[in-house]
User: Fold this.
Amino acid sequence: MSGSDHARFAPTTHGFSVFTTPAKPAVVTREPPAGEPRASGPSTATLVYGPREAVLVDALATVAEATVLADWIELHGRTLTTIYITHGHFDHFYGLSVLAERFPEAKAVATPGSVELMRATVDNPKVVAALAARWPGRLPENLVVAAPYDEEVLPVDDMELRIIEQGRTDLDHSTSVHVPALDLVVAGDVVFTQCHLFLGDTTEGSRNTWLEALDRLAALAPAHVVGGHKKTGAPDLPVAIDENRRYIEDFSRLVASDRSDLEIFTIMGEKHPGWVGHQWWLMFNQDTPRAPASQSR
Ligand SMILES: [Zn+2]
Assistant:
């Protein structure tokens, strides 16, 4: 959790606060050919609050993460009415069952498209087992999914959270949340703040969709932008939108060139010094082997 976030909630009635978890190292059968050991995260969960109520955006993944997140939510002294999940990746919704025990009144919701993707994960024993094998004993055994939410607006006290459908970024049916009253965007996995983007599951086409999603956020001209993943302590500023645009454009240009994967990996690291999560699989996903450049990219 970034220290500067504390100052924001004590004296104000309306605000937001960002909780950041460290990366979760994973057990893998094959070490990547270069870069940091495989891990998930670091990830964020964001609390948006008015005088009495609060809404949480994203629920993290492990039992430990969700437990500490629940303690932190309680510190804010608001009634948690809703947990909104930005997209269907496990690291954003697996913590729901832990939070449901602590906040039984809070409704967990997501867009219908994201709910389908969550179901596709928890109803597939192979996927559940594969994730459990990467983080043995760390993930909740009771897996729950959010309920489908069709409205564009989620209320919290006298404020509105506006849900923005973003299409595919690092997963289909990605969404972001805009809170006009706070000049805030909670971007989900449309923005990675000082953290290498998960491009390993993209094609040239989906990278273009991702760029359009970034344009949609830039058009809102927010003062604060929270990335779905971020380096602990990094500021929640809109510059992250431009940095992510450049990152995707650089990667697409390199992939279209004759450079080797190792050269691309090295150059991307040099272009983004100090960013966390410099992992091979984020660029070249070992779960979905990369197609030859002449085909999909
Ligand atoms: Zn994510």
Notes: The domain at 4-283 is CATH 3.60.15.10 (Metallo-beta-lactamase; Chain A). Confidence is low (pLDDT under 50) at residues 6-10, 289-297. Residues 89, 91-92, 189, 228-229 surround zinc ion (CB under 6 Å).
